[in-house]
Amino acid sequence: MKIDYKYNEDKLIDEFRNYIDSTYDQHYSQNNFQATEFIIDGGHGTGFCVGNVLKYAQRYGKKGTPADGRKDLMKVLHYALIQLHIHDQMNSSSLKDYPEPVVDGFLVDPRDL
C-alpha cells in the first residue's frame, strides 16, 4: 500500500535516519562508546533525555539561523527516540525483546534476580 504523505514524513524520516547515522561518526562516540550510554547505564537516562528534549525545544528559533533551528529539532527528535528506547527497556515484560531486565532504572544481570 502506497501512502500519500501530506507532510513529507517519508522524506523527513529518511533525513532523520541520516542525521542519527552522522552522530555515530562524531566526537560523541569516541572509542565506540557515546557519553549517553554511560549516562543511561548510570540510571540517569530519562532525566538526561527529557532534559535535552526540553533544552532544544526551548532553544528552537531563538539561536542562529533557520538551519540551526532545524538542527535543534533533529536533536529533540533524537533524544525523544533514545528516551523511547529507555521507556521500552524499563517497561518490557519480555526478556526476548530486552535480554537484560531493568530494575529501578538500572540494567541488571538476570542471574542477580
Runs in which pLDDT lies below 50 for 5 or more consecutive residues are none
Give the percentage of residues in beta strands.
under 5%
Please give the order of strands in the largest beta sheet: 1-2
Largest sheet: 2 strands, antiparallel
The backbone outline, from C-alpha atoms, is globular
Rg, Cα atoms, Å:
17 Å
Structural class: mainly alpha
Query: How much helix, percentage-wise, in residues?
Result: 55-70%
From N to C, what is the helix and strand string?
HHHHEE
Number of discrete domains? 1
The total of helices stands at 4
Averaged pLDDT: 85
Give the end-to-end Cα distance, rounded to a whole number of Å: 45 Å
Extended strand count: 2
Features:
113 residues; mainly alpha; two-stranded antiparallel sheet; 4 helices; globular
Report on this model:
The protein is mainly alpha-helical and 113 residues long. It has one domain (9-24, 35-112). The chain has four helices and two strands. It has helices at 9-23, 35-41, 45-59, 66-91, and strands at 102-103, 106-107. A two-stranded antiparallel sheet has the order 1-2. Helix 3 (45-59) packs antiparallel against helix 4 (66-91). It is globular and about 40 Å long. The N and C termini lie far apart (45 Å). The model has no long low-confidence stretch (mean pLDDT 85).
Entry summary:
This protein has about 110 residues and is mainly alpha-helical. It has four helices and two strands. A two-stranded antiparallel sheet has the order 1-2.
